[in-house]
Design goal:
Strand content: 25-35%
CATH class of the largest domain: Alpha Beta
Largest sheet: 6 strands, mixed
Number of strands: 12
Distance between the termini: 70 Å
Shape: elongated
Helix content: 25-40%
Number of domains: 2
CATH superfamily of the largest domain: Periplasmic binding protein-like II
Order of helices and strands: HEEEEHEEHEEHEHEHEEHH
CATH topology of the largest domain: D-Maltodextrin-Binding Protein, domain 2
């Protein structure tokens, strides 16, 4: 007698049952953001988002070490749920992104800042360096219409250009630029903070992941109420 082959349906949407059965949490992260998430040459992880991942494993599975980090490129942070259960990788909450993924309660509020040579004022600047195709460009043009924006390919390129021209400022996320300021005391922030935005844990949409999302949100809410998030942000000297 001929038997029909068994059809195995694969799903890329992680569930709480998957996490329990596996025994550890797969977390998508970056590995090059001092104070948020960075990996040393010896493979040691540190930063606020790393602390959050470990604490989430403690809350969900009772073991801070029950976590596996998956380094994600910038472009893959919203579409990697075949490899990760949650993403904690400096993702800003926006309405457009809410159409694709779900977000936890925010764990940190960041802002756009400008840095320049210490002592410089906005009126003394001749231009502002900013990442190409960044949403920050529109914010700068609205806030400082008299200053031209100069596109750079990366923060590293922006820092090099800033150091070579004392009449420029560099715009970017506070969590990225403030660690650099600590190591470069000849520079400081200039002007007001702009465009406050929230960072949150990214989770998949859909009914299958509902229980996982609920548990993550309960954990973040607890940390906000107890002050744990604020304490860890202060520990990492975040702005």
């Amino acid at each position: 007698m001929y038997l029909l082959p068994t059809l195995i349906v694969q799903t890329t949407q992680p569930t709480w049952a998957d996490v329990q059965a596996r025994g550890y949490l797969r977390v998508g992260v970056k590995d090059n953001l001092p104070s948020l998430a960075v990996r040393s040459g010896q493979g040691e992880w540190s930063g606020l988002e790393i602390d959050i991942a470990h604490q989430l494993a403690q809350e969900l599975l009772g073991d801070r070490q029950a976590v596996r980090f998956v380094v994600l490129p910038q472009r893959d942070r919203l579409n990697s749920f075949d490899r990760v259960d949650v993403v904690i990788a400096q993702v800003t909450v926006t309405n457009n992104r809410r159409r694709l993924v779900d977000f936890s309660l925010p764990y940190y509020t960041d802002s756009t800042v400008l840095i320049a040579r210490k002592g410089k004022t906005i009126n003394q600047l001749q231009g502002i360096l900013v990442l190409k195709n960044s949403a920050t460009i529109a914010i700068l043009q609205n806030s400082y219409p008299h200053l031209p924006t100069i596109g750079v390919d990366s923060y590293h390129a922006g820092v090099r250009a800033l150091q070579s021209n004392p009449h420029l400022a560099l715009a970017g996320d506070g969590v990225i630029l403030h660690p650099w300021l600590k190591d470069n005391p000849d520079y400081s922030t200039v002007g007001a903070k702009l465009a406050f935005h929230s960072l949150a844990v990214v989770m998949p949409k859909g009914l299958a992941s509902a229980e996982l999302r609920q548990k993550v949100n309960q954990a973040v809410q607890k940390w906000r109420e107890t002050g744990w998030l604020r304490e860890r942000a202060n520990f990492w000297q975040l702005p």
